[in-house]
Amino acid sequence: MKFRDSQAQQPAELELAPMIDVVFLLLIFFIVSWQFARFERDEEVEVPVAEETDKNARKAGEIIVNIRSDGGIFLNGNQISSTDLLVKLRNLAESYPNQAVILRGDGTADFEHVITVLDQVKEAGIWNVAFATTRKTTQQ
User: Fold this and answer.
1) What confidence tens digit (pLDDT) does each residue in 90-125 have?
2) How far apart are alpha carbons 93 and 71 in whole angstroms?
3) Which of 17, 38, 82, 89 is least surrounded by CB atoms within 10 angstroms?
4) Mean of pLDDT over the chain
5) Predicted confidence band of residue 140 (pLDDT cuts 50, 70, 90)
6) Long-range contacts of 2-11 (CB under 8 A, 24+ apart)
7) pLDDT top residue among 9 and 97
8) How far apart are CA 63 and CA 70, in angstroms?
9) Nearest-angstrom CA–CA distance, 106 and 60
């Protein structure tokens, strides 16, 4: 009777093709995620600090309007006038009645600029509005 030699077994080979597929899928996922997150955040906008903030899960389809300190209104990374904003918001409100809008107003912006955008949102018929804030950091 002939027994196999346990040391003579060939080592298992590592399949590279499936591993490369997974790496490329992860790369595509993160690039696409970064692209969407890039439009909603404006580096020039510093939202005000609040004592109490809610960390709610983001909903798909939220519209984020950035209001800079000089009064510039940015939607999807592009500067837009208040009349163009009204037209876009009206179209969204007609298509999606419960459309959510998040206003990211700069903490140093005049209150008048934020109210102008808020008036446009209300005139468009959107009721689901939130204001972005950051949580106060505790210094130890």
Assistant:
1) 998 888 888 888 888 888 888 888 888 999 999 988
2) 24
3) 17
4) 78
5) very low
6) none
7) 97
8) 21
9) 24
CA quadruple 78, 79, 81, 82: dihedral sign: positive
Q: Can you tell me whether residue 55 is helix, strand or coil?
A: coil
Domains of the chain: 39-135 (3.30.420.270)
Side chain identity, residue 15? E
Task: Give the pLDDT score at 26.
Answer: 93
Q: How many C-beta atoms surround the C-beta of residue 121 within 10 A?
A: 21
Q: Provide the token pair at 106.
A: 């700069």
DSSP-based three-state secondary structure for 59: coil
Residues 23, 131: Cα–Cα separation, whole Å = 37
Round to whole Å and give the CA distance between 72 and 11: 64
Closest by Cα among 29, 37, 74 to 58: 37
Q: In angstroms, rounded to a whole number, what is the distance separating the alpha carbons of residues 115 and 127?
A: 15
% of residues, the chain, pLDDT over 90: 13
